[in-house]
Design goal:
With about 150 residues, the chain is of the alpha+beta class. The protein has one domain. It is built from seven helices and three strands. Helix 3 (about 65-85) runs antiparallel to helix 4.
Length: about 150
């Protein structure tokens, strides 16, 4: 993977999701690969471009495999740009990339802060170390964001 792709990946993981609220949580699809990271973007378009260009580089997809990847992912990336997040689209996306990596969650940062889905509720509960999940308070946001940077490592 070239330096530009590494830098793009690092930037996506370090962004503050309060100003780059569109994100996903992903990692390798190998059964023993448990490392997952959040990546954050200012727009759905930026996120779709990342999934199309940077993610395959991160996972070493090259040559004919890269061409096949782009053929499978480009229509899904277009739909993400125009239709936004949905569980059905996430499932289709994962079916297209499953041999290389998995996107466990995608959505808006506010979803995580509110704990409004099963995935978000688990992250909030783990952060709070409490089974009684409640939305993250504004005075907890900095610590929650730091937690998200390491919760899948």
């Amino acid at each position: 993977m070239n330096e530009a792709m590494i830098a793009a990946a690092e930037r996506s993981m370090e962004r503050d999701p309060r100003s780059a609220p569109f994100g996903f949580y992903s990692g390798g699809s190998f059964v023993l690969d448990h490392v997952r990271v959040f990546s954050w973007f200012e727009s759905l378009g930026e996120m779709a471009d990342f999934l199309l260009e940077v993610e395959p580089a991160i996972h070493g997809i090259e040559g004919e495999d890269l061409s096949g990847y782009r053929d499978r992912v480009m229509p899904l990336a277009r739909r993400l740009r125009t239709q936004g997040f949905s569980q059905a689209l996430l499932e289709q996306f994962n079916a297209a990339v499953k041999q290389d990596y998995v996107v466990v969650w995608w959505g808006h940062f506010e979803e995580l802060v509110a704990g409004s889905t099963e995935f978000a509720s688990q992250r909030v509960g783990d952060f709070l170390d409490d089974e009684n999940v409640r939305p993250i308070r504004s005075d907890e946001l900095d610590d929650f964001i730091e937690y998200l940077k390491s919760c899948g490592s």
